[in-house]
Specification:
With 767 residues, the protein is α+β, with helices and mostly antiparallel strands. It is 31% helix and 28% strand. The protein is built from 18 helices and 35 strands. The strands form seven sheets. An eight-stranded antiparallel β-sheet has the order 16-15-21-12-13-20-17-18. Helix 1 packs across helix 2, helix 5 packs parallel to helix 6 and helix 8 crosses helix 9. The protein starts with a helix and ends with a helix. This is Elongation factor G2. GO terms for molecular function: GTP binding; GTPase activity. Keywords: GTP-binding, Hydrolase, Mitochondrion, Nucleotide-binding, Protein biosynthesis.
Length: 767
């Protein structure tokens, strides 16, 4: 009897349109019988922790590959923790502050209370398999979000209901737009005193330019938040205030005329708005004549319409709750299965050429001390099997995969095979890196190429359609903005440091390592202060190396101020061969960020293909070192006016001559340093606003806007990256620890002449 009571209470969390008590009872009885059989067969107990093995290869329509994305501290990891608990995969609730959550398993994550690297977990919910990736919210680790969204079919955007859309929310939302990922919004922290549903929904509409479709409204606010109303089913869900079940037990019942009149009015208005919104963008016509339709049928039609709108990305369902207070997470899980797409509902053009053969994308690599490199792959077609050989198209290599596993944070379950639509973890792929395409064999790739070629031959000649490729699109890696030197404790440890950096680079493509050609020092390039700090700490902990970091420096860019021409001749004899090259080039500024190469009239036609490649290699090499400080150049157009090459001259000498000529031309054109500007968003109490603005003025900051958010002020500003060093500590000091801020790279802008002169002198050792 106790089992049946619990089931009826929890059934209300489902978004399935059970509009009347009779349908709910039928489903409850059916579900109870199934559950009792499952217990009898598998021996489950209520407090048992499930195994990932319980749902290994479900039907592809029952799979959901989703990511949790948000601004830092919006509650992503807490929400993930509740999902695992309610689905039966953990026996207790972890807490970010206590450092015992499943997905934040790195020592650095548990110490700082933030997510640093994305973590994948697999669990089932109501006969659906959910492959979930919890992503970081800090701007320094935005690549983790980028490569997760690249392979996911849907996403849950988590918002702080008291803040609405924040700075990093905009960034991850744009990333999801780029990959055309359908989304569901979850307004978290509805229990906070400043939580505001209307404000949050309006900020989604205005700042994200999205069409929010409200599916739930809260009952109560702040500390009085006790439940919510499902607008699709017109049912309310109430969680008891003193809850010993950690949110597992809640009461669901239809709204009745005896409920609060103000709540009923609010629900009626919100539901009518929901229906009108869906009707405006959905092809499904919702008939509202209650004499003709049952409540059950209306709910089914409404849910179908919301799903279609979501998959077409014409709207985003909005739900609410409080993950920390264990309210609203089960309805969110129901929304994931009801509204986000299955893998077979997402279209990937390239997969058609492989048919039923394997086609997968490697999107993440981690290093394990016992197993070696572990490669995360998304399977788009075919199946992966342990102890099988696979072919890497990007590297043109064949490797043997020794083991295959299902990821569950840092604890993985070994399995024999996995089918299309899933995310897997492989052992033994030592050459594979992020962005590589994996297929069954070289012959499989050849067959796919033949199919593609046959289609290309059928096309009408003269078609300007871009040629298709057999390689899945990889992951775009942003350029680093900070760099510093790193040195081992002794020269005997240099090889160990090189090995550690090579492993970390393979894991994190946004980390760049290079060697200074003059001093021979190792240069570490990263996305921010925290990024480099984490790398330094990982080298110490994971590789037992006490390395020394030099002072952080900003990764500037350079450009030219005006047009400049140069002619250079290289005449050198090596052995018995004489190499003679003469190059004439012109450089000029351009508005676009990227650099460009053009040829004068008749020049390109008179150059052999290998000489033309050598010329372009020389120009690209010169772009890597600007004329003033040796930083990479951008916004420069180079016109090759003439190239004369004596017979017998090597292509390397051609590149060297062109590169030297480029440097002359850029110096003649006048160099300009471009400094990175950061978009800064500061949330501060009104009493500390003047102190914060004064500090920004001293940092050469430009105030863009000052907005009001509940009882706080939100300052939007642009500040040079060089001036943000140590800003976190200063902001805490000025505001007694009450203010928060986030920043991200905005653009590169020309530096003030006086500051540029001081920087040049400093870099030259004159200041």
């Amino acid at each position: 009897m106790l089992l049946r009571t619990t089931v009826v209470k929890n059934l209300g969390s489902s978004l399935a349109p059970d509009g009347c008590v009779r349908h709910c009872r039928i489903r409850a009885n059916t579900w109870c019988r199934w559950r009792i059989q499952a217990r009898r067969r598998y021996g489950f107990l209520p407090d048992d922790v499930k195994s990932v093995r319980s749902v290994v290869n479900p039907d592809v329509s029952k799979i959901r590959n989703i990511g949790i994305m948000a601004h830092i501290d919006a509650g992503k990891t807490t929400t993930t923790e509740r999902m695992l608990y309610y689905s039966g995969y953990t026996h207790s609730l972890g807490d970010v502050d206590d450092g015992d959550t499943v997905t934040d398993f790195m020592a650095q994550e548990r110490e700082r209370g933030i997510t640093i690297q994305s973590a994948a977990v697999t669990f089932d919910w109501k006969e659906h398999r959910i492959n979930l990736i919890d992503t970081p919210g800090h701007v320094d680790f935005t690549l983790e979000v980028e490569r997760a969204l690249r392979v996911l079919d849907g996403a849950v955007a988590v918002f702080d209901a008291s803040a609405g859309v924040e700075a990093q929310t905009l960034t991850v939302w744009r990333q999801a737009d780029k990959h055309h990922v359908p989304r569901v919004c979850f307004l978290n922290k509805m229990d906070k005193p400043g939580a505001n549903l209307s404000y949050s929904v309006e900020s989604i509409k205005k700042k994200l330019k999205a069409n929010p479709i409200l599916l739930q409204i809260p009952i109560g606010s702040g500390k009085g938040f006790t439940g919510l109303v499902n607008l699709v089913t017109s049912q309310r869900m109430m969680w008891p205030q003193s809850d010993d079940s950690n949110g597992r037990v809640f009461v669901t019942k239809p709204l009745s005329s005896s409920d609060d009149p103000e709540l009923l009015r609010h629900v009626r208005e919100a539901r009518n708005n929901l229906i009108e919104q869906v009707k405006a963008v959905s092809y499904i016509y919702l008939v509202l004549d209650r004499m003709y339709l049952t409540v059950f049928f209306l709910c089914a039609k409404l849910q179908m319409a919301v799903r279609r709108v979501t998959l077409a990305q014409k709207g985003v369902p909005v739900l609410c709750g409080s993950a920390l207070r264990n309210k609203g997470v089960q309805p969110l899980l129901d929304a994931i299965t009801a509204y986000l797409p299955a893998p077979n509902e997402r279209h990937h053009d390239l997969v058609q050429w492989y048919g039923n053969d394997l086609c997968a994308l490697a999107f993440k690599v981690v290093h394990d001390k016992q197993r070696g490199p572990l490669v995360f792959v998304r399977i788009y077609s075919g199946a992966l099997k342990a102890q099988s050989a696979v072919h890497n198209i990007n590297r043109n290599t064949t490797e043997r995969m020794s083991r295959l596993m299902v990821p569950f944070a840092d604890q993985h379950i070994e399995i024999p095979s996995l089918t299309a639509g899933n995310i897997a973890l492989t052992v033994g792929l030592k050459q594979t890196v992020t962005g590589d395409t994996i297929v069954a064999s070289k012959s499989s790739a050849s067959q796919a190429a033949r199919r593609l070629l046959e289609l290309e031959e059928k096309k009408v000649k003269g078609s300007d359609k871009e040629a298709e490729t057999l390689i899945l699109a990889g992951v775009e890696v942003p350029d680093p903005v900070f760099f510093c030197t790193i040195e081992p404790p002794t020269m005997a440890k240099q090889a160990d440091l090189d090995h550690a950096l090579a492993c970390l680079q393979r894991e994190d493509p946004s980390l760049k390592v290079k060697t200074d050609p003059d001093s021979g020092q190792t240069i570490l390039c990263g996305m921010g202060e925290l990024h480099i700090e984490i790398i330094h700490d990982r080298i110490r902990r994971e590789y037992s190396l006490e390395t020394y970091l030099g002072p952080l420096q900003v990764a500037y860019r350079e450009t030219v101020l005006q047009s400049g021409c140069a002619v250079d001749t290289l005449d050198r004899t090596l052995g018995d061969r004489r190499h003679v090259v003469t190059a004439s080039l012109q450089v000029s500024p351009r508005e676009e960020t990227a650099c460009d190469i053009a040829y004068g009239e008749g020049v390109a036609e008179n150059l052999a293909p290998d000489l033309k490649d050598a010329v372009e290699n020389g120009i690209h090499s010169a772009y890597l070192q600007g004329p003033l400080l040796g930083f990479p150049a951008q916004g420069v157009t180079t016109v090759v006016q003439a190239v004369s090459v004596q017979s017998g001259t090597s292509v390397a000498m051609v590149s060297a001559c062109v590169s030297r000529c480029m440097l002359k031309a850029m110096k003649q054109a006048g160099g300009q340093v471009l400094e990175p500007l950061m978009s800064l968003e500061i949330t501060v109490e009104a009493e500390h606003l003047s102190l914060v603005l004064g500090d920004l003025a001293q940092r050469r900051g430009s105030i863009q806007d000052i907005q009001s958010r509940q009882d706080c002020k939100v300052v939007l500003a642009s500040v040079p990256l060089a001036e943000t060093m140590g800003y976190s500590t200063m902001l805490r000091t000025l505001t007694s620890g009450s203010a928060t801020f986030s920043m991200q790279l905005s653009s590169y802008e020309a530096m003030n002449p006086e500051i540029q002169s001081a920087l040049v002198n400093k870099m030259a050792g004159l200041a």
